[in-house]
Amino acid sequence: MILFTGLLLAHALSFALLFSERYVVARSMMLTHLDQDVAVSVALLERLSPAERVRWAPRLERRTYRYLPGPARPGVPLTSDRAREVTALIDRSLNHHYRLRARTVSTSPERFEVELTLADGQPLTIEVTPSVMPIARWLPVVLAAQLALLLLCAWLAVRLATRPLVQLADAVERLDPARTHPPLPQEGPVEVVKAATAFNAMQARIGHYLAERLQILAAISHDLQTPITRMKLRLEAMEEGADRDRLIGDLEQLQQLVREGIAYARSTHGATGPAVRLDLHALLDSVVCDYQDAGKPVTLGECARASLSTRPPTLRRIVENLIDNAVKYGGAAEVGVRQLDDGRVAVDVCDRGPGIPEQEMQAVLQPFYRLESSRNRDTGGTGLGLAIAHQLAATLDGELVLANRSGGGLRATLLLPVAPASTGRSTG
Question: 209 pLDDT band (50/70/90 cuts)?
Fold first, then answer.
């Protein structure tokens, strides 16, 4: 708008100067023609009879003035400097030979009449209507076309200049260290190229730091398993007692944390291998049956038939984590599938537990965050279950959404895109 407004003002200034020049030229031409024409015309009409004056008067008419045989119409004294200037010019052109009576008969548009008496006693009126040259009918159309062209050029220029900025903003919004994104194209104005270069370098550094952090986490978790196993073996060889049982319990909790730490480190690369076409109902039915065989209160509710291209091991791990979380905190889990209007598939895992406070819905998706303030692992867990599910959902181009249910409980929804299969393989 700033660019277009500037161009519009410059265009308006050009037209204002043009019309001002047209006004000055038209006024000068009118005065020049009037000065040269009035003496000849009045002298001609002086030598004609009254009847012939009526016939000749229209032939002497010009665009801004005309000769009318007869007296002037009633009016008021001259009201403008231009009218007085024209009257003085007529008087000079006639060498002050006639007594002029000038009056204004209209102000909008301006029109005034100068009356004089010819030698035979008949009145003659010179009616003057000052005006600039009329505007051609095609001029407004041309002006509108020019303004439209200016607006189009301004829009194209701004779009070309800001397109890299839009790409940069989109890239910042999509920035996710868990996913690999192509670098931004480094093109456009110098400032935009610098910003894109800096963003690509930052994205690469963040990815490197995250990979390094997860590698350290995986290495530490892996290396801890061996001494933990040795300690368990030594404790099991000791005499039975309360202290021995407590130590074994602590080691089991530590071993669980180590296993989930390794799982979280691996979850950033969970979507490996080719995608296959599968029947979602069949996969969920298999998962639910495994839990039921183990005596867990897990049921398969309303399940819309859906077929999608995904990675079964990763999807299975996500659903299992959500079911484990529902069983742990809600006592039971119900699994269902919905087909959304936007084409995506929603896998719901519901429970009737205490739910999650609204202000902590996003926080529980972060690693090692637990709602249990005492950080008791028997009640608060390790804080990695939902984080792993959230991380794995991102590798499937999906989304994990948590919401409290009316009547109590939590609904964990896995939103998955339905895309064409990239391979001819399929699984049921």
Answer: confident
From residue 342, how far is each of 230, 276, 339, 414 by CA, in Å?
53, 22, 9, 14
Quick: pLDDT tens for 396-428: 888 899 999 888 899 999 999 875 433 334 444
d(CA 237, CA 231): 10
Above 90 in pLDDT, residue 289? yes
Q: What's the pLDDT tens digit per position in 103-122?
A: 999 888 889 999 999 989 99
In the chain, domain spans: 1-128, 138-171, 175-270, 274-417
Q: Which residue has the tokens 């590698």?
A: 215
The CATH class given to the 274-417 domain equals alpha beta
**Cα 175–179–185 angle (5° rounding)?**
55
Q: What are phi and psi of 238, to 5 degrees?
A: -80, 165
Structure tokens at 269: 């690369």
Residue 348 φ/ψ, nearest 5 degrees:
-100, 135
3-state secondary structure of 314: helix
| Tokens (6 digits) for 280 | 């979602």
Sheet containing 426-427, strands listed edge to edge, beginning at the edge strand earlier in sequence = 307-310, 276-279, 426-427
Instruction: Write out pLDDT tens, residues 309-344.
Output: 888 888 888 899 899 889 988 889 999 999 888 888
CATH (residue range 175-270): 1.10.287.130
User: 1-128: which CATH architecture?
Assistant: 2-Layer Sandwich (3.30)
Average pLDDT (1-18) is 82
Task: For residue 123, give the 3-state DSSP assignment.
Answer: strand
Backbone angles phi, psi at 399, to 5 degrees: -150, 140
| Cα–Cα distance for residue pair 22/146, rounded to 1 Å | 20
Cα distances from 373 to residues 2, 250, 338, in angstroms, run 55, 19, 35
Query: Residues 408, 329: contact at Cβ < 8 Å?
Result: no
Other beta carbons less than 10 A from residue 11's beta carbon: 14
- 294: tokens are 């183990």
User: Are 317 and 270 a contacting pair, CB within 8 Å?
Assistant: yes
Report how far apart, in Å, the C-alpha atoms of 305 and of each of 75, 107, 140, 282 are: 93, 84, 63, 9
